[in-house]
Amino acid sequence: MSETLPSVGEMLAATVPMVRTLNLEFVEATPERAVLRLPDQPDFHNHVGGPHAGAMFTLAESASGAIVLSAFGDQLGRAVPLAVRAEIGYKKLAKGPVTATATLGRPAAEVVAELDAGERPEFPVNVAITREDGAVTGEMSIVWTLRPQS
């Protein structure tokens, strides 16, 4: 008998209440790319009728977390992934549902090699937030670390 492991989306939804609060939808989560969608929800609109900046930040940060878990989930027994810092730029007005696509800024093997060498590696994750017509409404760069377990 085999046990089914939870997906990255299920793990994040179970452990990060904001993922559930915003009803984020997991479209894709692989070590190469993570894609999450924020549905259009009036309760999370801003003063111009689009998704609030805080909701877009949470969407992008959650996409970055999904790719980190996908790429480094096999390291969780010896390291804790933590966000170190983030910067977001809002480029165009977002209306309707928006999607965040995250990619790693360094090869995962390099990060793991630093962890193997006893270091606390840092690595960037880049996220593009787009509306349904494909226009980029925001960009986030978030730096993560793998903190070795004590």
TrEMBL record:
Transmembrane segments: none annotated. It comes from Streptomyces luomodiensis. SUPFAM superfamilies: Thioesterase/thiol ester dehydrase-isomerase (SSF54637). This is DUF4442 domain-containing protein. Signal peptide: none annotated. It holds the Pfam family DUF4442.
